[in-house]
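Propose amino acids for all 265 sites.
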């Protein structure tokens, strides 16, 4: 995360790719730039940049990390609510404790247009032709586009190619985040996500929200679930249509540093 309120920072795609390199740079899935808010009652705004230098509309885990960082800096009091401005919405955040953050992710939007999906048949679920065959999926926007595929085995070798193929499929005008979810029971899910611009990720907050929303809308899970991802577990709560979806989980400060790059931005 870069606090661009107090320093000049040009978010150049070439620079972001160098910074995101896990061998020669900092290493990240997304870079978050903290900005002055223009929406009323918001304490800050932020932009999200993928590791490949492209912009992302939303980042649920990033939103929690920013809230935790602002609390650590004394700009959000523990146990209180605050509002942050995203590209598409104003999000409410609740910092319950230094490493325990809950955020409102808005109401899920299940219309194909919301994710730029050119549906050729009535759904959901939708059927999509890939090189490996036809798969069934659901689509939902959590401020960014998601395709959700229910699977029985998250370790199936076929997913290694299905993830990238689905993310870049031409049926999605702007690409899509591909989530593969296994229902363990009505309150527990397991999930893997292949993200646009970042690839397979250890954790995807908006992807966890998307998977729960799809399963909740089709009656397969309860209003509160835990979603286990490779990097940790998130709590998701959604009461259904007309209600905002909430995500809660840990956020840990790792380090601060100074970026020195002779090539500059």
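Proposal:
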């Amino acid at each position: 995360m870069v606090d661009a309120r107090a320093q000049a920072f040009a978010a150049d795609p070439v620079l972001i790719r160098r910074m995101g390199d896990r061998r020669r740079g900092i290493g990240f899935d997304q870079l978050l730039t903290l900005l002055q808010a223009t929406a009323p009652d918001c304490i800050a705004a932020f932009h999200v940049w993928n590791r490949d230098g492209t912009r992302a509309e939303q980042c649920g885990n990033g939103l929690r990390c920013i809230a935790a960082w602002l609390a650590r800096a004394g700009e959000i009091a523990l146990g209180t609510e605050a509002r942050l401005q995203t590209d598409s919405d104003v999000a409410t955040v609740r910092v319950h404790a230094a490493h325990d953050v809950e955020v409102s992710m808005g109401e899920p939007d299940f219309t194909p247009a919301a994710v730029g999906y050119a549906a050729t048949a009535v759904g959901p679920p939708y059927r999509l032709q890939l090189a490996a065959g036809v798969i069934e999926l659901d689509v939902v926007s959590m401020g960014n586009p998601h395709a959700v595929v229910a699977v029985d085995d998250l370790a199936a070798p076929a997913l290694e190619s299905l993830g990238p193929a689905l993310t870049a499929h031409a049926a999605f005008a702007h690409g899509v985040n591909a989530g593969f979810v296994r229902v363990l029971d009505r309150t527990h899910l397991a999930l893997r996500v292949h993200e646009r611009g970042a690839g397979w990720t250890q954790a995807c907050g908006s992807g966890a929200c998307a998977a729960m929303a799809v399963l909740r809308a089709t009656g397969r899970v309860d209003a509160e679930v835990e979603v286990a991802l490779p990097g940790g577990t998130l709590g998701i709560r959604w009461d259904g249509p007309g209600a905002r979806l909430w995500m809660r989980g840990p956020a840990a400060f790792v380090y601060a540093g100074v970026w020195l790059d002779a090539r500059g931005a």
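Helices lie at 13-20, 60-72, 159-167, 205-217. The first helix runs from residue 13 to 20.
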